[in-house]
Design a protein that fits this description.
This protein is of the alpha/beta class and 506 residues long. The chain is built from 21 helices and 16 strands.
């Protein structure tokens, strides 16, 4: 007897429908044969499915079982096919009734006792299941809050194989109601700008970066406050819009970062990988492509501390994602695309000992070693940073005093207002302006034109450098509430320009 059920497989950040066909025949040697490019995890489901069926109180067929996963030219990965395969065997054996027109998408792994543990990637599978002519989803009960994010999708959470059999045995089962409101992830950062002593230039750079979604590079001695400043950036950013939150939650679901019971992620992610991470861990990939840190930070902040300590190869892999906002992972069988639109924040010491140019502590590094250390950050990658700040140590007067400092909430209000001006004017943030849009929305008056011409000559700005200066200048004007771009906005943007090589190394 033949049984056919519907499942789904996750590729990149999307899910594709998979047809699970099971045939049970009386002839041939007993056993389970799987076809349709199953990976090792899927092939191992033969033993899990057999034990789960028997331990749930159902007889396992004595004959030969053939399982086909279609489309046959797409590799099937993961344990999410355990449940549809087990139900297909029961249906093909006559234990589970088959009904015409059943279009439930069924996903879930199985433990040996028939239990169904939580799984990755339920949200993109729910989004794909919603597109079916008669949508419905059977999935692990632990993922109810996650699947409940998708509206107008009948949900059937199951905790065991017996639960799934009961759902499919009823002609018109009642769908579950997801918890309201869905559990929301906590804030990415609780640090407040009011805790920052001094560092007026660093605080200003954070505000500009947050308002226009610009890349930012901090340089300075150890303990000057680079990391402290970077960790305050998420507190200046607005919550995610629903479409952004849906995509961010899908990425985290695929990566297995959502704890059971978690719902929609509404705070912008903050990722800070260690400098020993590989290029694959940073941008994603693998035999079964998974999102990397740059994709996990999508719509949020990617913080790279001790930037020169990252390998040159790892850093250079960031160049294309920073420009395109996506990561393309190409494999022989299939290519996947992960979103990667992030705010990149880097922090670095000026030399190996960290005290080159520090007025309080001497540096013992030879000039050649200082230059070689700074050259670890290539010119093309350095040119990707819109803003650069030399972070100096805070004097004792700023530490011991008790001035009234602006809180993150106050700065966030100005950031929100500046972002709203950008979206109302051009439909996107200033960091995304390019070509014709840049010329249309960032016109230069005569003083600004003269200032930029002088800067190009004296600073040797590339075309990309000019573009980034104008983007930052437009953001500075938006923070001030000015409709027209003036020379003072351009002058401040030039002060934050990251040189191709620090002047201290020459």
């Amino acid at each position: 007897m033949l049984a056919r059920l519907h499942a789904a497989a996750v590729f990149g950040v999307e899910a594709l429908p998979v047809s699970v066909e099971v045939d049970v025949s009386g002839g041939g040697l007993p056993g389970i044969t799987m076809v349709g490019l199953p990976d090792t995890t899927v092939r191992e489901s033969r033993d899990r499915v057999r034990s789960a069926i028997r331990n749930s109180g159902f007889p396992f067929p004595v004959g030969r079982v053939t399982v086909s996963l279609a489309p046959a030219d797409v590799r099937k990965i993961g344990a999410a096919f355990d449940l549809p395969i087990a139900l297909g065997i029961l249906a093909a054996s006559g234990i589970l009734p088959q009904r015409d027109g059943r279009e439930m998408t069924i996903v879930g792994g199985l433990s040996l006792d028939g239990g169904i543990p939580p799984m990755r990637g339920v949200l993109p599978i729910a989004v794909a299941a919603r597109k079916a002519p008669k949508p419905a989803l059977v999935f692990p009960a632990a993922n109810l809050a996650e699947a409940g994010i998708v509206a107008d999708l009948p949900l059937f959470p199951v905790a065991s194989l017996n639960d799934a059999v009961r759902v499919l045995s009823i002609s018109d089962p009642a769908s579950a109601t997801p918890p309201l409101p869905a559990v929301v992830q906590g804030p990415a950062s609780a640090e407040d700008m009011a805790d920052v002593c001094g560092q007026l230039r660093g605080r200003r750079a954070l505000e500009i970066a947050a308002a226009g979604s610009h890349h930012l590079l901090f340089s300075g001695s150890p303990g000057a406050g680079k990391t402290m400043l970077a960790r305050r950036l998420p507190g200046l950013l607005p919550p995610l819009e629903f479409d952004e939150a849906l995509l961010v939650t899908s990425i985290h679901s695929i990566a297995g970062l959502l704890s059971p019971g978690s719902g929609l992620v509404v705070t912008r992610p903050f990722r800070a990988p260690h400098h020993t991470c590989s290029d694959m861990a940073l941008v994603g990939g693998g035999a079964s492509p998974r999102p990397g840190e740059v994709s996990l930070a999508h719509a949020g902040v990617l913080f790279l501390d001790e930037l020169p300590e990252f390998s040159r190869r790892v850093l250079e892999t960031l160049r294309q994602p920073l420009e395109a906002g996506v990561v393309h992972v190409a494999r022989v069988a299939r290519s996947v695309t992960f979103p990667a639109r992030v705010m990149l924040v880097g922090a670095m010491n000026p030399c190996p000992c960290g005290f080159h140019g520090d007025a309080r502590r001497p540096c013992h590094c030879p000039p050649l070693l200082v230059e070689r250390y700074q050259r670890r950050l290539s010119g093309p990658l350095r040119d990707r940073f819109d803003l650069g700040v030399e972070v100096q140590g805070v004097p004792w007067g700023d530490i011991s005093g008790d001035p009234v400092r602006e809180t993150s909430a106050v700065v966030r209000g100005r950031v929100y207002a500046a972002r709203r001006r950008q979206l109302d004017r051009q439909g996107r943030l200033n960091s995304e302006l390019d070509g014709r849009a840049l010329r249309a929305h960032v016109p230069l008056d005569r003083p600004s034109h003269v200032l930029m011409a002088t800067a190009v000559t004296r600073l040797g700005l590339s075309v990309r450098g000019v573009t980034r200066v104008l983007r930052v200048a437009r953001t500075i004007a938006d923070l001030a509430g000015d409709q027209e771009l003036r020379a003072d906005h351009v002058a401040e943007a030039l002060q934050f320009r990251v040189p191709e090589r620090s002047a201290s190394s020459t």
